[in-house]
Amino acid sequence: MARSVVFAALWSVAFAQKCPIQFDGRVPQAATLDSFDGNESPYNPGYVLGANLKWSSALQFPSVNTSLFDASGTKAVEVTINDKSIFTPSADNVQKGFRRAELLPVSVTGTDASTTGQKTVHFSVMKDSARPLNGSHEYQLFFLESNDYSTNQVTLKYGTIIGGAKKDADTLTVTGNVNTNPVATLYSTKFTPGVWHNFGIVLNFSSGTTQVYYSTNNNPLASVTRALRNSVSGQGQYHFGLLKKPIGGGSDIAHNGFQPKNINEGVIFGGIFQEDSSKSGCVSLKP
Ligand SMILES: *[C@@H]1O[C@H](CO)[C@@H](O)[C@H](O)[C@H]1NC(C)=O
Ligand SMILES: *[C@@H]1O[C@H](CO)[C@@H](O)[C@H](O)[C@H]1NC(C)=O
Ligand SMILES: *[C@@H]1O[C@H](CO)[C@@H](O)[C@H](O)[C@H]1NC(C)=O
Q1: Does residue 149 have its Cβ closer than 6 Å to ligand 2?
Q2: pLDDT band for position 9 (50/70/90)?
Q3: pLDDT tens-digit profile of 162-176?
Q4: Domains (ranges, CATH) in the chain?
Q5: 209: Cβ below 6 Å to ligand 3?
Q6: Which PANTHER family does UniProt cross-reference here (predicted)?
Q7: Is the CB of 248 under 6 A from ligand 1?
Q8: Is 258 near ligand 2, meaning CB less than 6 Å away?
Q9: Would you state the pLDDT for residue 93?
Q10: What's the whole-model pTM score?
Q11: Which of 65, 195, 196 is the best mutation target for the ligand 1 pocket, counting ligand atoms within 8 Å of the beta carbon and taking the most?
């Protein structure tokens, strides 16, 4: 009892915010890794993780500069994967083709207001030089997965995108709906080490458009695309972390394909939140 009261206090931080908040996944300085295992953090304690793993073993608090939207007393959190990061939603569904660890804001039910009106998802990502990603593989660092699991309406990918055009694998790519053929690249940029890459992704669920805002380090976000036509219907859940796809695997990459052994990989996140941009397109460009 006393424990949960303490944790709840750790997770309540007041932010001066221009636009109304839909969900807030920013991590207060005082938050502990253990608090991600219970119901105190704003993230789902059970998903999406390897079977029998706990968030306290899959997350780290890295020592890095404060990201753009962590300026009011919140800190970075790193999501890591290893050979045990095999998501097993049921005994007969062992996703051994993937390595996965993705934080899901617990207020997002799949049919809530985070996927209606116009909303802007904010997050920053940075490489961890001690836990490099493998550019031979495709990763998803962020995605909205529809409520019927049939598609990802918007993603942030890294590495060699399966079926994608040949390009430098060391690239962050924001894509449109992955069920579109070909999948649209909305924006891409080099994943420079030691640099925060800040994204604001504006989703208009009424008009079916996606607009990308981007900056590095402490620079305010700037629009890097127009509001581009993109099918964002189907509501669903926002994922922040690592979904590493296999090499090969044919038509069922969740269960087949090659994954090298003894991996130790991670990506650092900062400033995860979503704001309501319905009123006069309110998008926070800086804190
Ligand atoms: C942190 O920010 C300072 C000031 O911008 C910069 O000089 C330094 O290189 C940064 N450190 C890291 C680890 O990025
Ligand atoms: C990167 O992935 C490829 C393909 O799975 C694998 O052959 C290679 O050993 C990996 N490289 C490292 C440094 O782990
Ligand atoms: C979202 O799209 C709808 C339908 O086109 C439009 O009426 C609305 O103004 C857009 N929202 C914003 C904030 O631009």
Answers
A1: no
A2: low
A3: 999 889 999 999 999
A4: 22-276 (2.60.120.1160)
A5: no
A6: GH131_N DOMAIN-CONTAINING PROTEIN, GLYCOSIDE HYDROLASE 131 CATALYTIC N-TERMINAL DOMAIN-CONTAINING PROTEIN
A7: no
A8: yes
A9: 96
A10: 0.94
A11: 65
